């Protein structure tokens, strides 16, 4: 059981002992630290924070703890309840709130939950702000409101509809074109809030929808990370129903993957590639993804006359680089689409709407669309951390060993070889070292990953 405290938020397993897991006491402690940080940002009479959650079994409990802790600090709450991460992000901006919290552990299994923290723009906190909240939690003096100045909770269930309305109003989303294409889609929402939001969006765009695992009860029917090995039910149903394609989202609806009409994975890395291709066809500009993402985005960007830039891993880093380079589309290779014309956050719903419009405009199948792009193959492996593993030292040794290659150390160690690459980094969300590789064949990518795992284990004496 684990509690991970990082700039990405507070993430842990439910139950167990305080400070080792995400217990009620830990939820209150870090919510109070966040509330204290919110009050330091601006001196005003009233503060307002948006709070929402995915459908995890522990979500309602954690939400009540978090909201009432902030109420106790004199902070007003906009309770959007069952929602998505991108919806909460947009609600913060629409409400002119001082911040937001989405209670979700993203792709982690059901025993996990987390407090993901937003600033007053509805964007994830930068490293400095995240560290300040951690410091307040450990060393700060927390001050609560007196009885006449407690905050109030206001429930607002309109933001999912408002989110969808904003998507449909985008210039590059053409709902009439999609309606005329008469598409049929299977949706796997892993029994979380995508089961509410994705069918609503598809209905608005005139798409026939077949629901799979769309009951938002938090009982995940499979590992919620949208990878091929977890999606057998979806792949089979797409073929059985003769659907045009399948859609899968993670529990908080910020990761998006597709299955083609033959029941084959479109490729999680190619979600961003295809959406970027469509955007860049209509608007010349730059793109950004993190350095663990496929080279395919670089290829498509350069084909359209734009410039591609790689950022450190993490949504906040991608967003910062997108703003810096004035990127028109960006995201992460794990199926995270960031479309700044809507907002600066990973958003599966806008990704679906743009993909549907692209498909309807091209008048081709999903498998034919996938063939347009250079095929790269990725291997995503990991090494579990143990107390004796000195990750920083191991990465330094790797950097020295491969000093003759093209190396980036802005986030762990990325080694670019002529025909492939490897990225080694300590995860912000799990107690692991991630080993990502990419090559021109799956066998080559897997072999490269296994080679580096062996080298790390040998260096560590494992």
Automatic annotation (TrEMBL):
Alphabetical list of InterPro entries matching this protein: A-D-PHexomutase_a/b/a-I (IPR005844), A-D-PHexomutase_a/b/a-I/II/III (IPR016055), A-D-PHexomutase_a/b/a-II (IPR005845), A-D-PHexomutase_a/b/a-III (IPR005846), A-D-PHexomutase_C (IPR005843), A-D-PHexomutase_C_sf (IPR036900), A-D-PHexomutase_CS (IPR016066), Alpha-D-phosphohexomutase_SF (IPR005841)
Pfam families hit by this protein: PGM_PMM_I, PGM_PMM_II, PGM_PMM_III, PGM_PMM_IV
Highest taxon listed in the record's lineage: Bacteria
Magnesium is among the record's keywords: yes
Entry EC number(s): 5.4.2.10
Segments forming domain Alpha-D-phosphohexomutase C-terminal: 397-453
Annotated keywords: Isomerase, Magnesium, Metal-binding, Phosphoprotein
Gene Ontology MF term list: phosphoglucosamine mutase activity
Domain Alpha-D-phosphohexomutase alpha/beta/alpha: start-end pairs: 8-140, 171-263, 270-374
PROSITE patterns: PGM_PMM
Cofactor: Mg(2+)
Family classification: Belongs to the phosphohexose mutase family.
Protein name: Phosphoglucosamine mutase
Gene from which the chain derives: glmM
């Amino acid at each position: 059981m684990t509690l991970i405290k990082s700039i990405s938020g507070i993430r842990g397993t439910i139950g167990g002992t305080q400070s080792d897991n995400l217990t009620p006491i830990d939820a209150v402690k870090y919510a109070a630290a966040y509330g204290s940080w919110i009050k330091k940002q601006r001196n005003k009479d009233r503060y307002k924070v948006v709070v929402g959650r995915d459908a995890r079994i522990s979500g309602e409990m954690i939400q009540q703890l978090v909201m009432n802790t902030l109420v106790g600090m004199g902070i007003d709450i906009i309770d959007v309840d069952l929602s998505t991460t991108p919806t909460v992000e947009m609600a913060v901006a629409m409400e002119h709130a001082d911040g937001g919290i989405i209670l979700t552990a993203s792709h982690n299994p059901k025993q996990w939950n987390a407090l993901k923290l937003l600033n007053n723009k509805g964007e994830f906190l930068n490293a400095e702000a995240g560290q300040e909240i951690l410091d307040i939690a450990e060393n700060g003096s927390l001050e609560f409101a007196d009885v006449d100045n407690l905050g109030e909770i206001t429930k607002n269930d309109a933001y999912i509809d408002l989110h969808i309305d904003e998507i449909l109003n985008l210039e590059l989303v053409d709902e009439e074109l999609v309606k005329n294409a008469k598409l049929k889609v299977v949706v796997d929402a892993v029994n979380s809030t995508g089961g509410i939001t994705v069918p609503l969006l598809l209905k608005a765009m005139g798409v026939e929808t077949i629901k799979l695992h769309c009951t938002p009860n938090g009982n995940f029917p499979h590992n919620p990370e949208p990878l091929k090995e977890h999606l057998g039910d979806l792949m089979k149903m797409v073929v059985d129903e003769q659907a045009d394609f399948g859609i899968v989202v993670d529990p908080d609806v910020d990761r998006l993957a597709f299955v083609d009409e033959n029941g084959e994975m479109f490729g999680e890395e190619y979600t961003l590639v295809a959406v970027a291709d469509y955007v860049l066809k209509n608007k010349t500009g730059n793109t950004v993804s993190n350095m663990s993402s496929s080279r395919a985005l670089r290829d498509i960007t350069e084909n359209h006359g734009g410039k591609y830039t790689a950022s450190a891993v993490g949504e906040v880093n991608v967003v910062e680089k997108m703003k810096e380079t004035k990127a028109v589309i960006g995201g992460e290779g794990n199926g995270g689409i960031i479309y700044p014309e809507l907002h600066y956050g990973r958003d599966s719903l806008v990704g679906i709407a743009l993909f549907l419009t692209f498909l309807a405009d091209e008048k081709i199948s999903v498998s034919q669309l996938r063939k347009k792009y250079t095929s790269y193959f990725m291997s995503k492996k990991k090494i579990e951390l143990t107390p004796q593993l000195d990750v920083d030292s191991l990465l330094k040794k790797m950097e020295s060993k491969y000093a003759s290659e093209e190396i980036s150390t802005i986030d762990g160690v990325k080694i670019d070889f002529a025909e492939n690459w490897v990225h080694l980094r300590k995860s912000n969300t799990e107690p692991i070292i991630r080993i990502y590789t990419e090559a021109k064949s799956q066998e080559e990518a897997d072999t490269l990953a296994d080679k580096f795992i062996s080298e790390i284990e040998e260096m560590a004496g494992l």
